[in-house]
Amino acid sequence: MESLGASELVAWFQSQNGTLDSESMGIVTFRGQGRGAIALKNIPEDHVLFSFPRDLTLSTRTSTLPLLMGDAWKAHGLHEGWAGLILCMMWEESRSAESKWSGYLAALPQTFDTPMFWPEEDLKELQGTAVVDKIGRGEAERDYHEKLVPAIKSRLDLFPEQLIPQYFTPERYHLNGSRILSRSFHVEKWKREHGEEDDNDDDAAKEPGNDSAMDIDVPEATESAPQPPPPEIDAEREEPDAEEVHVEGFDEDSDDEDREDPADVAMVPIADMLNARFESENAKLFYEEHELKMMSTRPIKIGEQIWNTYGDPPNSDLLRRYGHVDLVPLRPPLKGVGNPEDVVEVRADLVVKIASKRVKHNLQERVDWWLEEADDDVFVLRTGCQLPDEFVSFERLLLLPKDDKLPKPKADKESIVIAIEALEMRMEEYATSIEEDEQLLEPRSVNQLSVNKKNAVIVRLGEKRILRGAIEQLRLQLESFSKRTTKKRSREEEKDGKGKKAKI
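The structure corresponding to this sequence follows.
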C-alpha cells in the first residue's frame, strides 16, 4: 500500500531531472502485483522508457548522513551490512520535504506480504523449507539494537528525540529492510578507462542476484578503451557507451557476502516500480557516466506489462524477498506447474547420519577434511532432479577410511543407497505429504486457503517434487546396477561352469 499516487511520484521524478516517456509507458496497479508499468503503445526494441541522473539513486554514497556522522559511522558498524542504508532511508524519510528523496520514499510500500511479517501460525506452513532460517528477523533486530540505537542516541542533533517514535522504531527498521530486499539495485562506482574508479561520480549500476532486487550488466567502459565484459553481461548485446543494469536481490545470506560492498546497494526510483515474472523480461536498466536509462530489450505490444528481471530465482526466494511465487509449466522430468528454477537444500549432516550406519571408521575426520577442502555443508538439488557432483563426492569420501584428495563424483551402488535414504529423511522434515499438498491446491480447496498458506504450500510442494524426482531417478540407477550385477554374475557362473566341464 503506497501513500503517494503514481502521478505525484512521476511529478517528483521529473522535478529531480528525471525524464519519462509518458506516451509509451504508464504506471498502473495490477491485481495481486501492486504497481507496475504498462505499454501505452507499441514500443520498439532499444527504446528509452525513462532516464535520470545517477545521483538520484539513494545509497550510503548519495545520502549525506554518513558524511555528517563522520568517524561515528564506522565506529557504530554502519559501514557493514544493510544497517547503514536502512538508517539513511529512515533519516531521509524523517527529514520530509528537506530530503531530495521525499517524493520517492512517500511512494514506497508501507506493508509487505513476505514471511518477515507473517504470524507464527503461517510460518509453521513453511516447515521443512529453508525459508524460515533465511528470514533473519533476529539478526536484523540485533543490528537495530547494537548499531542503530547507539548511533541515534549519540547524535540527537541529527535524530531529534521527538522523531524517534515515528521514524526510528524496530518496525520501521524491518520495513525499510524489506524495501531494500525487494527493490534495491546493485550500483557500483563508475569505472573509467583501465578500471579506474571515478571518485567524483560515485554511482553506477549493476545487476544483483541473491538478494538485491535488481541487476545491471556492464559492457565496455568507453569506446576508446574496450574492456571484456564481466560474467553478468549479456554478450549478445552491444552498448558502446552504456552499461546494462540487472535486477535481482542483494542477499546478506549470500555466499558472495564477503565480496559485496554495502555501499553498492541502492534504491532506484521508478526503476523499482517494474515487476518481474519468470522469463518475461522485456526491459533493463542501463547506465552511462552521468545517467541511468531503462530501455526495452525487445518489442513490447500495447497493453503488455513492462517486465524487468530478478534473475528468475526459485519460489522460496521469491516468497522471502517479494511475497509472491511464480507458476509456469515445469520441464521434464517434473510435470505440472511450478517454478522451473526451484531448488531444495539437503544438509550434509543428513548424509553423515545415514553413512555412519554403514562404516566402522570415524567420520569426523572425513567431515572436517571436506569442510576444509570444499567448504560446503549444504547441497542444492534443482528441477533436473540430479544429485550435484559435490553430493556424490561427499558420499564417497565418507565411505573411504582415508584419502588425500576429493573422490570423483562417480556414483556406485552403496552411494546411491545412502543418497536415497538421505533424501527420504529430508522428505520427512515436511509436516505434510506431496499428495496432501496437491489436494490443497486443487480448485475446490485452494480458494479456502489464505494467500500466505497458498504460497507456503506452493513453495514446499516444489521442493518435495524435486526430492521425489531425485529419489525415483536414484532407484532406477540402483535397479540398473542390480541388473548389471546379476548379468555379470550369470556370465561368471556360466564361464566357471564351462571351465569345470573342460577339466573333467
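The first strand starts at residue 19 and ends at 20.
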